[in-house]
Automatic annotation (TrEMBL):
This is Metal-dependent phosphohydrolase. One of its GO terms (molecular function) is hydrolase activity. Coiled coil: none annotated. Keywords: Hydrolase. It holds the Pfam family HD.
Amino acid sequence: MTREEAIQTLQHYTKGDSLLRHARTVELVMRAYAQKLNQDPELWGNTGLLHDADYEAHPTQHPHVITQLLRERGEEEMAHAISGHYSRWGVPHESLLDKGLLGCDEITGFVVACAQVRPQRLEGLEAKSVLKKLKQASFAASVDRGEVRLGAELMGVDLAEHIAFIIQALQPHAQELDLLPVSTEVS
């Protein structure tokens, strides 16, 4: 599957800006990890892009609609990773791609949430600040902290280093992601 096909599939099912941005941020982080780990950036990026593609249109069937579509297209590796991107679904995390998607999904959303509440957004955001926010159960309460920790563990990375890597992967795309510093000048 090409990136263009993945984008068309995503846009067919997903219309909301927030979920589209989440798909893009997970794509960026997955591509960065693929390059770091000598994996296929197209496969990893498209998997990140499509992992929640059916969530908005079919929330009670998520992720079955997108995984069925991918399987029909012969994209079993992507389908398997997407079918297990939440550990409570009970799908085994066998490949590096499976582990990478679980490891990047929740924490990438959390990093973006941390950036959004700062005037500097991604600029100067440090892993220690994100770790501190993780301890605040009321902040981005929908983010499953257990999934965040399990994801880093499955990937075999230190959580602070993982967060720093995600921040670094997103920073060059701050403008596209609407995460540039907010001007605080008063006229």
